[in-house]
């Protein structure tokens, strides 16, 4: 990989010199508009000049301010779409004779020119990472410029191929991992913030802790996604039990359960490109290969949409899930200190557990999807909703997102495929008998529309 990178860099430097010599006019460098350079890159036939042009374009983009970057991205949409004349001709030819040759010509004519431009920009050293950063910029601008959705579709199409599972490399992250990568693990942790290097060490160094990350060969020192794993003797019901630094460490040989307690996507520019399902499955294979006597693979997961959903239901004049009587009790949630009041906790805990069951099993978006994004991820991967835990994450973030509720999703290796099919094809949430029993709780039964049970 080092040899290949050096070779590409050498080609790029030689080609850049050729381009710069050609642009030296009247004793000064006179760079043409970046749109002209993009046209030149698309028409380029030489490898060296192509690499050089791609490098210069991306370097110019990196130096732009936000207004210029937004203009550049909009320019790609406006000026580098499909050739409309060629597309019309290809459509007419296919309609006249719908064979494979004309279908292939139609497919080629329909592809926006910017897709090939993005491919050629990727020729430059560091091009892949620069393009991922470019898509991050696109996300910042797309609300004000809806037309950028077309460019995002191109990025998504190309990234789905470039970041195919076959190209990803699973690497363990431990206390011996280079510091520049460890620093990024601290920065990218999106579920349970890592407060310090000592906190990071407590997650990586103990023998009953593991961390794995996916890397891409073109982004070798920046993880795409990582998962933190605790090896335990049972299924945990609280993140405090997992993260406390003064816990008794477990001999990995005595562990029966692998707990995936944090999964963090690292690259915002790869939003919508799924790695997590592959990551969990490969980590399960890796832990099994290491010879531990692990029988249970489970998560301890946040429920980030629960508090927002419950807040909206409490404000509804007529709610299918929250009766007026329940609303009165749930008003205790408005006290910022409710989680430190034992009386409030005792009254609210059974209600929150039952309502969380309703939220995960029955509540749906307008389009019929399960509301919670973490639930969609694990259920879509074939996990089973195993247990709902109250007072599991009393941190400020846990209280704000889910009133301290967390859940366990169980990955039963014999049922993953059937669970996945049930959720994907029928929208069915596979849940344990314990979770389904929560729907029969008295406080939950008292809703107006009891037929939903």
What does this 3D model show about the protein?
- β1 (24-25) and β2 (28-29) form a beta hairpin.
- The protein is globular and about 70 Å long.
- It folds into three domains: 2-162, Up-down Bundle (Butyryl-CoA Dehydrogenase, subunit A, domain 3), CATH 1.20.140; 166-299, Aminopeptidase (3-Layer(aba) Sandwich); 302-452, 3-Layer(aba) Sandwich (Aminopeptidase), CATH 3.40.630.150.
- α5 (84-96) packs antiparallel against α6.
- It has 21 helices and ten strands.
- It has helices at 2-22, 34-43, 47-63, 66-79, 84-96, 100-110, 113-121, 127-141, 148-162, 179-188, 197-204, 239-243, 276-289, 306-315, 324-330, 342-361, 373-380, 396-402, 416-426, 433-437, 442-445, and strands at 24-25, 28-29, 169-172, 209-215, 225-232, 257-265, 296-299, 301-302, 384-389, 406-410.
- It has a five-stranded mixed sheet with strand order 3-4-5-6-7, sandwiched between helices.
- With 453 residues, it is α+β, with helices and mostly antiparallel strands.
């Amino acid at each position: 990989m080092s040899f290949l990178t050096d070779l590409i860099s050498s080609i790029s430097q030689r080609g850049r010199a050729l381009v710069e010599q050609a642009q030296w006019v009247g004793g000064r460098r006179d760079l043409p508009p970046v749109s002209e350079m993009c046209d030149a890159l698309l028409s380029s036939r030489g490898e060296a000049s192509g690499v050089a042009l791609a490098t210069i374009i991306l370097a110019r983009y990196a130096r732009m301010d936000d207004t210029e970057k937004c203009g550049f991205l909009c320019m790609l949409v406006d000026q580098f779409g499909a050739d409309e004349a060629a597309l019309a001709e290809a459509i007419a030819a296919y309609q006249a004779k719908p064979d494979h040759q004309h279908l292939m010509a139609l497919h080629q004519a329909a592809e926006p020119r910017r897709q090939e431009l993005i491919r050629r920009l990727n020729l430059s050293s560091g091009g892949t990472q620069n393009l991922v950063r470019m898509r991050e910029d696109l996300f910042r601008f797309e609300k004000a410029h809806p037309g950028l959705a077309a460019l995002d579709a191109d990025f998504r199409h190309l990234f789905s191929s470039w970041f195919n599972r076959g190209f990803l490399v699973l690497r363990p992250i431990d206390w011996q991992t280079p510091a520049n990568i460890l620093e990024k693990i601290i920065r990218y942790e999106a579920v349970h913030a890592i407060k310090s290097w000592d906190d990071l060490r407590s997650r990586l160094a103990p023998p009953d802790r593991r961390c794995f990350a996916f890397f891409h060969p073109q982004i070798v020192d920046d993880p795409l996604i990582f998962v933190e794993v605790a090896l335990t003797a049972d299924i945990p019901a609280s993140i405090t039990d997992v993260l406390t630094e003064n816990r008794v460490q477990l001999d990995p040989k005595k562990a029966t359960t692998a707990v995936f307690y944090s999964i963090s996507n690292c690259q915002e520019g790869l939003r919508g490109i799924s790695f997590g399902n592959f990551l969990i499955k490969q980590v399960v294979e890796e832990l099994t290969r290491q010879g531990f006597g692990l029988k249970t693979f489970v998560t301890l997961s946040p429920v980030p949409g629960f508090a927002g959903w419950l807040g909206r239901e409490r404000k509804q004049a007529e709610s299918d899930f929250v009766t007026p009587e329940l609303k009165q009790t749930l008003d205790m949630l408005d006290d910022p200190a409710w989680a430190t009041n034992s009386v409030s906790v005792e009254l609210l805990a059974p209600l929150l557990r039952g309502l969380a069951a309703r939220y995960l099993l029955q509540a749906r978006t307008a389009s019929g999807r399960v509301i919670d994004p973490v639930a969609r991820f694990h259920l879509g991967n074939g996990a089973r909703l195993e247990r709902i835990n109250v007072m599991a994450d009393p941190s400020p973030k846990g209280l704000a997102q889910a009133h301290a509720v967390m859940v366990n999703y169980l990955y039963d290796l014999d049922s993953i495929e059937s669970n996945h099919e049930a959720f994907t094809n029928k929208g069915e949430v596979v849940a344990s008998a314990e979770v389904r029993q929560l729907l029969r709780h008295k406080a939950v039964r008292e809703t107006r529309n009891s037929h939903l049970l």
